[in-house]
Amino acid sequence: MTSQEQAGTSVTTSRRSKITPEREREFYDAVLDQLRENGYEALTMEGVAAQACCSKSTLYRQWKAKPQLVAAALRAGRCVKFATVDTGTFAGDLRSAARAAAQQAGRDTQLVQALGHAVLSDEELQGALREALVEPELAALGEMIDRAVARGEIAADHPAIEFLAAQLLGVQRIRPVLEGRYADADYLTRFVDAVVLPALGLSEAT
Predict the structure, then answer these.
(1) How confident is the model at residue 205 (pLDDT cuts 50, 70, 90)?
(2) Average pLDDT for residues 172-192, to the nearest whole number?
(3) pLDDT given for residue 108 in this prediction
(4) Between helices 45-52 and 21-38, what is the axis angle to 10°?
(5) N or C: which end of the chain has fewer CB within 10 A?
(6) Is 83 among the domain residues?
(7) Within 13 A of 43's CA, how many CA atoms are on the CB side?
(8) pLDDT at 171
(9) Residue ranges of region Disordered (predicted)?
(10) Shared-domain flag, residues 99 and 69
(11) What confidence score (pLDDT) does residue 126 get?
(12) Smallest Cα–Cα separation from 109: which of 54, 47, 178?
C-alpha cells in the first residue's frame, strides 16, 4: 500500500469513528436503561448495540470495553438535583432538596443497585458513580450550608453538619430495602422535618 493509500485509509477510519453528540446520547441512554432493567452483570455490548441500532464494533471502537462504556454513560448522565435550590432559609433549602431528590430517587437507586459489586471492584466505575450521583450533590449541599452559616442560622462547626449528606442521600437508598418502596417527596420532606431539622437545632416552623 502506498503512503497516499495509507493516508486515505487513515482519513476514512477517522471519519468512521466520529459520532455526533446526539448519537452518543442514544448510546448512553441505552446503557443506562439496560443497567436499571437488568443490572451490570447482565448488560452486554450486544444488548446496547441492539437497542441503539448500531454494530458492536462501533461501541468497541469508541469505548474498548463494557466498563469504559458504562463509566462514560454515568458521567454523561450527571444531574445536579440540588444546584438550583435557594429558598432563603436553610430549612426551606433542605425541604426543596428533598423534593428534588424524590424526582430521581427511583432511577438513582436503580443505578446504584444495578452496579452492585462491580463498583467495589472497579475504580473507574466507582469514580464515575461518585462523579455522576454523589459529588455534585455534596457540592450543592456545601453551598446550602455556607449560605446558612452566613445568615447566622447555624454554626459552621455544628456537629450534625458532618452527617447531613449521609442522612439525605442514605435515606433514599435504604427505604427500598426496608419497605420495598422508593423515597417519594412526602417521605423525604417528612424525614427532613422529623429528623434532619431537629438534629441541626432547627424547627419545622423555621
Answers:
(1) low
(2) 92
(3) 82
(4) 130
(5) N
(6) no
(7) 25
(8) 92
(9) 1-22
(10) no
(11) 86
(12) 178
Selection from 42, 73, 36, 32 nearest residue 182 by Cα = 36
Question: What is the structure's pLDDT at 88?
Answer: 94
Would you state the cell numbers that stand for residue 55, as one nine-digit string?
Answer: 454494530
Residue 117 confidence (pLDDT): 81
Does residue 59 carry a pLDDT above 70?
yes
pLDDT value of residue 206: 60
- The CATH number of whichever domain residue 16 belongs to comes to 1.10.357.10
**Torsion angle, alpha carbons of 64, 67, 68, 73, to 10:** 130
Distance CA 12, CA 135 (A): 40
pLDDT over 70 for what percent of the chain?
88
Residue 50 C-alpha cell reads as: 441492539
81 is a domain residue:
no
Residue 131, amino acid: E
For residue 189, the enclosing domain spans 90-199
For every residue of the chain, DSSP letters joined together read --HHHHHHHHHHHHHHH---HHHHHHHHHHHHHHHHHH-TTT--HHHHHHHHTS-HHHHHHHHSSHHHHHHHHHHHT---SSTT---SSHHHHHHHHHHHHHHHHHHHHHHHHHHHHHHHH-HHHHHHHIIIIIHHHHHHHHHHHHHHHHHTSS-TT-GGGGGHHHHHHHHHHHHHHHHSS---HHHHHHHIIIIIHHHTT--TT-
Contact status, residue 78 vs residue 132, Cβ threshold 8 Å: yes
